Amino acid sequence: MRRVTKLAAVVLSGSLGIATLAACGSTSDSSSTTTSPSGSAGAGAAGGGVKVGMAYDIGGRGDQSFNDSAARGLDQAKQQLGVATKELSAGANETPADKTQRLKDLAEAGYSPIIAIGFSYADAVKTVAKEHPNTKFAIVDSVVDAPNVTSLVFTEEQSSYLAGVAAAAKSKTHKIGFIGGVNVPLINKFEAGFTAGVKATDPSATVTPQYLSQPPDFKGFTSPDLGKAAAQGMLDKGVDVVYAAAGSSGNGAIEAVAAKKAWAIGVDSDQYKQDALAKSRDAILTSAIKNVDVAVFDFIKSVKDGSAKTGTVTFDLKSGGVGYSKTNTAALDAATVAKIEKAKQDIIDGKVTPPTTVKQ
Amino acid sequence: MSAPSPTGDKTAEALAGTTGAGQAARLTGRRRLSPAVVLLIVAGALVAVSAVRALTGAQDVTSPGQIAGALTMAVPIGLAGLGGLWAERAGVVNIGLEGMMILGTFFGAWAGWQTSPWLGVLAGMAGGALGGLVHAFVTVTIGVDHIVSGVAINILALGATQYLAKLVFADKPAGSPKQSPPIDDIGSVSLPWVSDWLDKVAAHHWFLVSDVAGILGGLTTDVSLLTLLAVALLIGTFFALWKTAFGLRLRSCGENPTAAESLGVNVYRYKYLAVIASGALAGLGGVFIAMVPSHIYNEGQTGGRGYIGLAAMIFGNWRPGGLAMGAGLFGYTDSLQLRNGGPSVHALLLLVAVLLLVIALWRAYRRRWTAAVVSAVAGAGLLVWYATTDTVPIEFVGATPYVATLLVLSLASQRLRMPKADGLVYRRGQGK
Questions:
Q1: B357 and B250 share a domain?
Q2: Which of the pair, A106 or B64, is modelled with greater confidence?
Q3: Looking at the predicted complex, does its ipTM rise above 0.85?
Q4: B345 lies in which domain range?
């Protein structure tokens, strides 16, 4: 009897171990290799033999926010340019070494270009790009100075400035809230631009900032419940417009705001159109849009055409890399739109330069 | 259940030497707090908080919104802690609470989105109970170390739900590989007209009156039905574990399983029951996270609250009332932090400083000079910090729950007593 028990223990713990390994594998390596039919038909003809390696940030494909926007660009490239792709995702609680290893794996498997999504890849890209000088790299949201790296950055402060103009125009209490996912320089940029936009439109208005978590804890980008609690705190204090730059945590904030019939401002993509927010969409005044998909697609296309730009490529209001949405026509009246358009023109003309850092 | 059965009586005798709270208290020379003393302490704390609020103008410290937020943050922690309580009272350490919560979020959302939220609640509890069953089988039947099994369950649950979410949510409208489509609201209740009236009183910021109104208002306005269920389960657990023969037998398995078995208690069965119940409660905590503060399953949304629940239970000395207090403390500070807590935490600095100075005086009166000096220096330091700043850095606000726990645990740790056979592997018949 005892031997049987022991055997059972061994088998069970063995299978547990294997399952655990499998589970680990799936957290850090949700991969899918797809070659488009045309690519496999004519060897190297369609797609020019371009194999795109994509490394997502935490959240990965399916976060209905930043990473999904990048994924849209990749999907578009797959369809229109017929490139082969491989996608890897960052897991929660991973170390910088994991990121470096992920890029290394892609490079050694012959993928070029390799696109790293998110500022947290900056050091990893720097290291791996040096080791693989013949591989092309791109990084979104950060600048890495190397001959084979293209840095795709956005002027989020400009789109956030426009969001601030919209918020100030709509606020009746002159109290406006900003919810940032994680307190990092990238999100500070959103806050700085937003606050400047509010102040320029309504000097008497105040902006209350609230960050959901502090680095290295990045749960603030993936916790709708935290977003909701923060938004409720603001609403209780009389805030009537809330701008959430917090990944999927922003959905919770938008829900809370909608329940109180206040205004919410979405981020990254046009959140008015998202199915997940269908119930709250009337409260979404506008969204500060960041076209990561455009950046990703343009970059892949330029690599395929052999005209890849290196150095820093900035996507701003002028080039349409960032902007704001006008889909909620019931909320955005003509006067507000006129104010936003004027601010937009001022920024494009260089008359106004939104700040990128928060004054302490 | 009310009629004491022979087995219950005998177990009681067998356990008298180890579990009697009175005996334990006598041994350590401490008195148990009587209800009147507890009420006095609560009233004193209220007056102190109220004074701090009036002095500093940090109105959010007891506002209804803050209290309601604290309650929402506290319930999942409390449910996880309650799960931990069931398991540990039967002698099984359950570090797998986090994994069982994850199972609860996934299965709750999976069923809740397709059918009704209440079926989701059942499915989530079943999912958590499944995790509990695995833990019970591995630890009780096979005798694997409890920590090893718990950690394995945490990893397994995370991996399994990630895999399943990709299968069932990815191609649904408004779903994605990491998120479920939205679930309908489970509904909430307010005390008719009382809660409105309380909110109005709270808004006047009167000394003490508004604080009481704020706390009561927060606890009676828009309370989710799941919160009520959680409170009922907390009270039910107290009665089930401390007032019935079933509970006595279950706890006997955690104190002295050999003695329990010699008296005819089926130790394995009780451990199984306890760990499965533990999983179901943790699963309910997961369901709460997926359904009340948000309306979706979202990968990684438990955010380590299973572990915090375990900490709350230890904080509460393996008792339901204590663990509710622990969960409340975590919930309160979590909520403070999310509601622009800089000014509020700054105001509470003053409270802690004054408390430390009072403790210093008390220690000095008792001629405990070292403790007195340490408390006095710490209190004075906080007072200086309070006086020289207007707010506390947001980094510190984020750390508040943990600092508060460390403080309270370091003050109360001598009084903690875990079940005697907690975490030990028990083999049937090992006492022979």
A1: no
A2: A106
A3: no
A4: 340-416
- Structure pTM? 0.80
Q: Is B154 among the domain residues? A: yes
Q: Take residue B197 and report the two structure tokens written for it.
A: 């009236």
Q: What is the pLDDT of residues B230-287, one digit of tens each?
A: 999 999 999 999 999 999 999 999 999 999 999 999 999 999 999 999 999 999 999 9
Residue A27 with chain B: CB contacts under 8 Å: 158-159, 162
Question: Could you give the count of Cα atoms lying within 13 Å of B256 in the half-sphere of its Cβ?
Answer: 15
Nearest CA in chain A to B427: A2
Instruction: Give the one of A217, A234, A276 whose C-beta lies nearest to B296's C-beta.
Output: A276
Q: Are residues A75 and A35 in the same domain?
A: yes
**Exposed e or buried b per residue across B329-354, where buried means at least 16 C-beta atoms within 10 angstroms of its C-beta:** bbbbbbbbbbbbbbbbbbbbbbbbbb
- The verdict on residue A1 lying in a domain is no
Please tell me whether residues B232 and B379 are part of one structural domain.
no
**What is the Cα–Cα distance from A226 to A213, expressed in whole angstroms?**
9
Looking at the 3D structure of chain B, how many domains does it have? 2
| Partner residue opposite A23 with nearest CB, options B143, B160, B176 | B160
Task: Give tens-digit pLDDT for B360-391.
Answer: 888 888 888 888 888 888 888 888 888 888 77
Cα dihedral A192/A193/A194/A200 (nearest 10): 110
Asked whether the predicted pLDDT for residue A315 surpasses 60, the reply is: yes
Task: Provide mean pLDDT across the span B82-106.
Answer: 95
Q: How many whole angstroms separate alpha carbon A204 and alpha carbon A215?
A: 32
Instruction: Measure the CA–CA gap between B34 and B41, rounded to whole angstroms.
Output: 11
Same domain, B128 and B162: yes
**A188–B contact, CB cutoff 8 A:** no
CA gap B106, A311 in Å, rounded: 43
Q: Phi and psi of A292, rounded to 5°?
A: -60, -35
Amino acid B412: pLDDT: 63
Q: Do A144 and A121 share a domain, yes or no?
A: yes
Q: B7 lies in a domain?
A: no
Q: Are A280 and A169 in a shared domain?
A: yes
Residue among A23, A236, A275 minimizing CB distance to B155: A23
Q: Shortest Cα distance from A214 to chain B (angstroms)?
A: 6
- Are residues A334 and A197 part of one domain? yes
Q: How far is A345 from chain B (nearest CA, A)?
A: 34
Statement to judge: residues A274 and A307 lie in one domain: no
Range of the domain at A193: 156-289+329-348
